[in-house]
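Exercise 7 asks you to align residues with tokens for two separate proteins.
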Amino acid sequence: MRFFSFACAALCLLSGCTEEHYITPDDVAKRTEYKIAVVLPMSNAARKGIVNWAIENLNAAQSGTKGVRITAEWYDEETENMAALAQTLSARQDLCAIVGPLYSAHVAPFAAACTRVQKPILTPTASSEELIRAYSSSGYLWAMVEPDISQCEALLARAMARGAKSVAIVAKENDLYGQTFIDWIPFQAIELNIDYKATVAYTSATIVGDIAAAVASGAQAVICAPSGASDAAAMILASRAYEGQTHFFFSDVAYDNQVLQLLQEQGNNAEGIEGVAMGSDPMEGFDVAYQSRNNTSPQLGSSQLYDNVMLVGLAAIEHHNAGGKKSFNKAIQTVVSGTQAGGNWTVSGMRRNIDAINRGEYPVIKGASGALKFDATAFTTVLSSVYYHWEVYNGRFLLLDYSSSDPSRRISSTLSSWNWKATNGQIFDAVVRTYPPHRNTYALVVAASSGWNNYRHQADAFAMYQLLKKQGFDDSHIVLIAEDDIAYNSSNPEQGVVRTAVTGENLYSPTAVDYKPSQLTIADIEAILQGNQSDRLPEVIASDSLDNVLIYWVGHGLPTGLEWGNSDRLTPNNIRTLMDELSRQKHFRKLLFLLESCYSGTVGIACTGVPAMLTITAANDKETSKAFNYSSANQSWLSDAFSYSLVDELSDTPQTTYNSLYNTVYRATIGSHVSVYNFGQFDNLNTASIREFLEP
């Protein structure tokens, strides 16, 4: 009876009580037109129906000939060239906003184009962490769901609820969607005290073997993040071989009727599989109303798409009332900044919100997906999302329960797209080590990558170089290795300028680059550290047993080592052998290795046991490190999270203890666990000062 009453109430809301005053087509036609471009997969007619439904309700919620009308132009996400379409639509002066596309990879060119011309783009399901983090500060990409960091959290919670104490993940590497899961689940698993077993980067051609590898890791739960419906169906089929052995949990891409259809065509089904997907707020009745209107359940992103169009309509009213004196994007910001009680997504609810906006009052808008509350600084990321826990039963998706993301794990409400707290920090025992007097310090600063896409690595290296120069180092005590191909790169809008923050200082001048990675081999790196000077290598680290050696290395890393150039790799065992040789030859009094790369903890583990050496890494051996400070003008990341906070802290407090430095950088580095290795062979980190590596 309670469900029946709820359904009836939802149906009343659906009807919107439009009987109060009949709105004629002529009335609507006389209203001020606001045109939107809608970019969605046109093979799914249901999504087009949602947009039209929202427009109908907006029309019905207004009185007479006053107000606005939303008209839509349709573009097929499945057939259009996204990059070309983004350039065309973003430049159109007659379009107030763009709704869509659906997929993160397709949103990326639209986000870049719309940011440049300051046109709002509203996306129903784009949830890539990197995409939203890159454009959240610009204020023009409006995401109706939190980034998939929250979905990662929800998936891990489901695994824990099933009793799993260890997990592995199968996701597509270097894919805008899959990379979020690869980047964040290892980090979150550690924070939630789950044993993280393996990351398996799948390809569409090797799914069967990739699923087998994840199971072979010994994980009690395997989280699958397919990047498309066909991949999801293939993963489900592959998982069938391990029923009863391992729990499988699927991300939102699998919550798609197309997946069920693909499986049925292959003579199989998805019976019993479960997972997580973003959905509507169950308190708002959208799913029941949708079911009644369409005689089928809503698909992924249905409520968010409805809210996209509704928000455009409410912003159009605000923009119209302001007589065009504020931008359309500013009108959206105004509409979602309200604090008073407001209406919901239905006709009557929208009428209540519209009446308030016309009075210059701004309520909290309740969308079909929940309250449309956005990040207070950047505005464009919702602060919480509802996630379905679903299971396939009798060939259909059955919703078991709902959950919401946990804002308590964030540092603040701003930039909610990625600021999970790291809480499991290290504690360092007091050790006593005796060293001879300190004479000189030498530094090797390495940016191991090249090219505009790797801007951040060279920028971080230049930042470390400038820090050392300000501390009194001369170039004879620094060997700087960088490709030096970004300051005057054709993509650089500020020729001759390199920064690690959008408004930061120019780090490029003066710099004294000694070598380019393209000129050096790994053997050359070893020779430089061993002080083996030659005609090819005139600049080396000329240190001995009374000198401290600082190595700062920034670049790409894999579990198998540090990448060097396009084809070579410095393995953890290579590095350990080199460090042992430097120690044996007495090339240092103390050695500090600061390492910024993904999976950098593998090097720290390998070097454990080397006397008088300390390694501090951006991430542990299972995590990726995270880029930081995106520049819309540059279309590139300017820094890395660990390196930025490291240089910032050393610049402010160069006399700090190692323990204090670790705690500050650990808290400031989001998304990976800054890790310290071999402190037992080094010194008392609670009392020793890092100043000894910042004095030439």
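Second protein for Exercise 7:
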Amino acid sequence: MTLSKKIQAAVLIVLNFLLLHYIVSSLPLRFDFTEEGIYTLSDSTRNMLEKLEEPVSVDFYSSKSIADLPAWFKNFSDRVEQMLEQYEKASGGLIRLKVIDPKPDSPEEERAIAAGLNGTEIQNGDRVFLGMVVAQGETETVQPFFNWDRETFLEYDISKTIYETQLITKPRLGLITSLPLKAPPAMPMPGQPQQQSDQIILTQLETQFEIVEVQGSESELPADLDLLALIHPKNLSEDLQYSIDQYALSGKPVFLSLDPSSVMEREQGRQQMMMGQMSQPTPSDLPNLLSAWGIEYDVANVLTDPTNSLSQGRFTQPSWLIFRNDFVNRDLLPSSELEGVLLLEAGQLKHSSDATTSWEPILTTSADAGQIESMMLQFTDPSQIGRQAEPLAEPATVAGLLTGTASTAFPDREDENKKTSGDITVFIIADSDFLLDQFSVQRVNFLGMQQVQKLNDNQDLANNFIEYLGGSRDLIGIRGKAGASRPFDVVLRMEAEAQKQYQAKLEVVEAELQETNQKLSEILSEQTGSGIIYATPEMEELIAENQKKQAELKSQIREIRSGLRQGIDTLGNTIGAINLLWAPLALLAFALIFNRMRKSN
């Protein structure tokens, strides 16, 4: 073969490779090899997108042209854009994505500000945008800013914004409660203080839902409820319980707050006894429904936990528990950012071994938890509660999310339209006092205006799960995923090994230094008795030895760190070389195979 023909063949090979690359990149195929599939839409999101009936426009505002942006921001912006592209592809053309770069002092920036996007100002005075506007028909929903801290819930935030765009009216929330969430309607007398406000939980829910109050004596739930909240429900009629059973089996979500021992009711009972009235607080329980759902609820006992007990100075209340850190489920979106939840005299919830449902604990105690009869709390001093509690020897669950298939709690009930089974979604928590203002917020007057300050995350817990349940059922199935920024396990192991070497050498040298310092102290103590302190040859030798050992330690540490940096650099160079050379090597392999196939023909 002549040289010109070899050159032509090489050019043809390159062109064929580029053409193949173009064809493959144009195919609607995408492979996600990340550990948790962070670039792949969940089945719940795909189900939601399949229900779209009208086109949805998504204007994604991303400041790409500003030069001073940090690398992490650019990477996160690309991550959001790639995720939105997946929505566009999965929607079958109903989602129309438009990426907009709102450059400083441009019409695009003005439109972003007018739409309500929260631009962040950087040092040079420019505003950085990373949000989106979703519109369907006349309805428009804004995601003001995608927060890096919520990267693991990026899919949920996008899906929720798209879902809310399709809502025309507020969802209807049915509320059954024995707690005084609503302020009494009495009018204040002249010169008397203004009547108390509604409980914060009710005020906040009214901004998101149309509240439909249901009395416990009613025979059935109102029609067209999107969510049902039962808060310390008591004395419900059997007909109403059957209606709740059918409502849950239909797939509609339920927020259930039970209580084996209501602190609020006990305080009210004491006040009434002082006035000569008898009042005995009773627990709330729905035994038939819980049994059918596969939940065992201990209505007679209250949990204690010395690890999580509320402590204020010298006072400790063993049955008032604060849930933080490892005792809160961080994998589920509504509880992922809770820092402290206070439950008062909460009960224990267990998932039955033969249950057909699935149970995901949200709040759990430590292994030091115990239990005490709720009736004893009326007569026992708080300092004695911990001693009288019976140890459980294992963590206890006080709140969780129940999903999956359940059977009716009323199998013998005759009803031609009765559902005998269905998929349920129920959030259950074994306390109700945590919702009340007196245990979750404080109201303060500032310049004549009343402000509300959080004492804990109680209100966030309730609002997060009610909002979570009140959204699309498909949204409930979207879980948090790992972030795109993943730790380099090899580097972490190298650093850990270097730290072990450093720590081992440090312990040896510190022991030698301590021995030297001890000798110096002994010599100094002998001189102190004479009233004159002077440097002896022995002291000078010990000091010199001390300094020498410190210098040796620093030198050894530098060697360890230098070796660590060299190892990391070598690893990085190797990976970089692989990234750089894989395409030419693949092209060379393709050329060799092509040449062999051509010769064989």
